[in-house]
Amino acid sequence: MADRLAVDIGGTFTDVVLETDRRHVTTKVLTTHAEPADGVMSGLAQVLDQAGTDPGAIDVVLHGTTLATNALIERRGAKTVLVTTEGHRDVLEMAFENRFEQYDVNIDRPEPLVPRRWRLTVPERMDASGEVLTPLDRAAVEGLVPRLVEEGVESIAVGFLHGYANPTHERLVRDVLGAAMPDLSVTLASDVCPEIREFERFSTACANAYVKPLMSRYLADLRDRLNALGVRCPFLMMTSGGGLCSVETAREFPIRLVESGPAGGAILAAQIAADLKLPRVVSLDMGGTTAKICLIDDGEPLLSRSFEVDRSYRFKKGSGLPVRIPVVEMVEIGAGGGSLASVDRLGRIQVGPQSAGSEPGPACYGRGGTHATVTDADVVLDRLDPTRFAGGTLHLDVDAARAVVEADVAQRWASADDGVSEAADAIAEVVDENMAAAARAHAAEWGKEIASRTLIAFGGAAPIHAANIADKLELDAVLVPPAAGVGSAVGFLAAPVSYEVVRSRYLRLSVFDRDVMDEVMADMRAEAEAVVGPVALGELFEIRRAYMRYVGQGFEIAVPVEESTAEGLRRAFDGAYEQLYGRLIPGLDVEVLSWTLTLLAGREGLKTHVSSPDAMSTGCAATPGNDSRVARQDLSVGDPVVGPVAIVEDQTTTVVPAGFEARVDRYGNVILRRSP
Q1: What pLDDT was estimated at residue 315?
Q2: Cα–Cα distance for residue pair 15/22, rounded to 1 Å
Q3: Dihedral sign for Cα atoms in the order 615, 616, 619, 624
Q4: Are 316 and 100 in contact (CB under 8 A)?
């Protein structure tokens, strides 16, 4: 068995997993935001030492990170300019020309990444079929250079009207500016998002340009450090769509990394659901900074081609920064262990979205934190073992946790004799309700039921809060897999090498042209092979989709393409449309707006988390005794653990509250159910 290394950089912790001989060696280290590679190398040194192995034995490095996401949210990317068609500089500002909350007069849209003074225009024009209406004014492009140099611009996005149909003008701008400014980072909208709809295309291109210099420097730095240590194996990046790609591809299109860490967690949960034959699952990935919730049906997570970074208005669609990328569909909220707790002017406890992160972190870390967080509340409630937190690398300061909870919350809110405990319990209750509300809203947005699902909990904080959230959502059971504290990194080990390509090419089924379809599929296959081929092992598989709608509709649905005929496409569309909306519309023609092709290698995934439902009821009636904590490795298969009790392991703690009972199945999963 080859040694494989998985690294997931979060807002608070960097998780490192070394898989060797089907054994996982894991660690959590605090994320080093100034130099993220420092934390990675520190964690790598720890797992190598624990495993007693050599860096040269590692055969592949798999990496996911929230660095791109955090740069977008915190607005600390490169100084970026958008060059666009004359008369269209305000596309980013106009957005969808709607209100995501109709009755709130005080709503604020996210500010564009590129301010108006840095949105520059040049004369040029294409029509929707890619025919040139106005040739590009090369002199106007050359005239931009003095201003770009004077402003110290680091990165540029080029997006022209209908550039997806004919990228010639965008490429010419890249060549002209690249010749004059060799160090300039350039993103073409026709490369990063070759689809119709100007706003989403320009927004995606600007987001890619905004984070490209930062991510390119980081990935180059990390690769150099790994090579210097003797790790000279393939280095692959997790993408937001749940697949792996090369570092070179990631450096060119870092926007595809925005949800790479959470996508790994969704892959893990989907594999568990498939192996256990759990038809309806909701995954909860709660780390130090955020919580991520994903719905999984029949072993497959929801997938999408659109995502909003940093939804700022109560999980409301339209309140974030839209990007068009392949993504595992999930909702992400500011509810993590480091989320700050406070009392507002109306006397209400508020938790998040601001976070203490890793610098300085919660007060209980003893690193200078001065504000109450969810982790501080959990420490006050005796849910965490102060000596074993993060594998014993951090010794939690209980007195510091009590002090900040008292100062920030108890003194302004609690009324009971033990105000600190009451306040800590209220903080935990608020953050749990926030996550439950986000799960309800996400399910409703997709027309799904949330009740009666199995909750799969992972991430450092999720198993602590999972049972209470399950109770609020009326879920049947909670499953905490082995190595749950580093679950997203474990998920990387199960992900396939894959890449998705999109093309907008219009076709009506009533005048279907097979040659057009074959041409666009061949073009996408060639592009995908150029990315996947050099790093994939084994046979390659295609997944084809058409984005279709009735003529006259405003939005399309994803339809699997299995037959290259008008009749086959119509049957597939009818099936997908009826499943989604419950009816068909007779007498209307159907049109295809865009096509996607995903190329992936045979999944050589991890299979250590398989189980079976009947493995949960064997064993004798054992209890952990009078202690409020029990070590996970001391539990035998089938031993019932009756709450309230905390099941402690190196990277997380599973809280079994009163009214719940937990058992370990023969594959190491902890299963929580309500006590009979």
Answers
A1: 58
A2: 18
A3: positive
A4: yes
State the DSSP code for 497: B
Q: Give pLDDT tens digits for 495-519.
A: 888 899 999 999 999 999 999 999 9
* Residue 636 · residue 622 · CB < 8 Å: yes
The answer to whether residue 190 scores a pLDDT higher than 80 is: yes
Q: Which two tokens stand for residue 146?
A: 């003095």
Q: Look up residue 217 and give its amino acid.
A: R
CB 561 within 8 A of CB 544: yes
pLDDT above 70 (res 380): yes
Asked whether 392 and 381 are in contact (CB, 8 A), the reply is no
Helix (H) / strand (E) element for 656: namely strand 653-656
Consecutive H or E run containing 156:
strand 155-159
Dump strand ranges (E) for 46-200.
58-65, 80-85, 119-122, 125-126, 132-134, 155-159, 185-188
**Residue-wise pLDDT tens digits, 604-653:** 433 334 343 333 333 333 344 445 888 988 888 888 899 899 999 888 99
- Check: CB of residue 428 under 8 Å from CB of residue 468: yes
| pLDDT number for residue 602 | 63
CA 624 to mean position of chain CA atoms: 37
State yes or no: pLDDT of 79 exceeds 90. Answer: yes
Contact present, 585 and 546 (Cβ < 8 Å):
no
- Phi/psi-derived region of residue 659, left when phi > 0, alpha when psi is between -120 and 50, beta in every other case: left
Q: Is residue 21 left, alpha or beta, with left meaning phi > 0 and alpha meaning psi from -120 to 50?
A: left
Give φ, ψ of 54 to 5 degrees. -105, 145
Task: State yes or no: pLDDT of 667 exceeds 60.
Answer: yes
- Going from the C-alpha of 344 to that of each of 19, 159, 228, the distances in angstroms are 46, 43, 51
Asked whether 559 and 572 are in contact (CB, 8 A), the reply is: yes
**Half-sphere exposure in the Cβ direction for 226 (13 Å, CA):** 27
User: What percent of the chain has pLDDT above 70?
Assistant: 93
Tell me what the mean pLDDT of segment 49-78 comes to. Answer: 88
Residue 385 phi, psi dihedral angles, 5° rounding: -85, 110
Question: Cα-flanking dihedrals φ and ψ of residue 164, to 5°?
Answer: -65, -30
Closest to 255 in 3D by CA, of 190, 309, 208, 324: 208
DSSP lists the bridge partners of residue 322 as: 308
Cβ-count burial of 225 within 10 angstroms (0-12 exposed, 13-18 middle, 19+ buried)?
middle
CB-based contact 493:6 (threshold 8 Å): yes
| Rounded mean pLDDT, 531-537 | 80
CB-based burial, 623-633: b 16+ in 10 Å, e otherwise: ebeeeeebebe
pLDDT of residue 306: 80
Q: What is the mean pLDDT of residues 255-276?
A: 91
For residue 169, give the nearest of 158, 182, 154 by alpha carbon: 158
Specify which residues 294 forms β-bridges with. 283
Within 380-485, strands assigned E span: 454-458, 477-480
Q: What percent of the chain has pLDDT over 90?
A: 55
Per-chain mean pLDDT for the chain: 87
pLDDT at 336: 86
Of 169, 159, 160, 166, residue with least CA distance to 131: 166
Count the neighbouring beta carbons within 10 Å of the beta carbon of residue 612: 12
Cα–Cα nearest to 628, from 669, 651, 658: 658
